[in-house]
Amino acid sequence: MNLSASELVLNPDKSVYHLNLLPEELAETVITVGDPDRVPLVSQYFDSIEVKKNKREFHSHTGRIGQKRITVLSTGIGTDNIDIVLNELDALVNIDFDSRSVKTTKIVLDIIRIGTSGAIQPHIPIHSYLMSEYAIGLDSLLHFYDSQHVQHPEIQQAFLSHTNWLKDKSTPYVVECDRELAQKFASKQLLPGFTATNVGFYGPQGRVLRLPLQDKAINDKLASFNYQGMQITNLEMETAGIYGLAKLLGHRALSLNCILANRCNGEFSTNPEKATQGLIAYALERITDN
């Protein structure tokens, strides 16, 4: 089946619509970051850079460290952007843009998120590094896809009961990281985590500036949730979407988090760039360690 112009949208040069990349410009190892300014903080470690592209918030550099080819790509904030990024990354490797048809042989991408996050457990220190083993999506993205087979309904049901989750909100979904990638990256430097992916930075994460919250105890409910010894550790805005779509599309994904805030203690990093730079160096070392 050929995909119509309205479904697979390409630019005049046949690059994919939002990411502005041609298939040959994407490496099979992809690092995602939220902030476009963080892309050069990653690519500064490359021995060479062959591609630099940008369109809107989607900036990408493709290059090499030794023989390892890597693309670093900014996603912007939120799972709405993750829907664009994951689908277009997959299209770049698994759809023939000339015939507009899905390829018979599929390529599996390794997608590693290097992001920042806030802890909701008091024992997680500022500037620590956390690997999201599971993520719970408090958004609605995965419900638009046939996705029940990649979710963990038993954890989801326990969460709904614990939090008395209101029916006028999207039903949370739980997805898991790729275990092979997790083994490759694991060390004593990484804390294991169960990450909550929120739909916003303020109200959805329990922050109050001028607007009152529907549920003032939301963060306490998240922090006190416990499923067979597994507690929610941190809040951010992309991981569950990355994990869910990666699994549905057949790719491997892992989310690494630099903890810049501890919401329990009211603390925020005084040097977030230095802390994040340390996680970038750690991730690149693991990626290039064959």
TrEMBL record:
Domain named Nucleoside phosphorylase: residues: 30-273
Gene3D superfamilies listed in its UniProt record: Nucleoside phosphorylase domain
Pfam family of the protein (one): PNP_UDP_1
Reactions performed catalytically: uridine + phosphate = alpha-D-ribose 1-phosphate + uracil
Enzyme class: transferase
Cross-referenced InterPro entries: Nucleoside_phosphorylase_d, Nucleoside_phosphorylase_sf
EC annotation from Swiss-Prot or TrEMBL: 2.4.2.3
Annotated protein name in UniProt: Uridine phosphorylase
Taxonomic lineage: Bacteria, Pseudomonadati, Bacteroidota, Flavobacteriia, Flavobacteriales
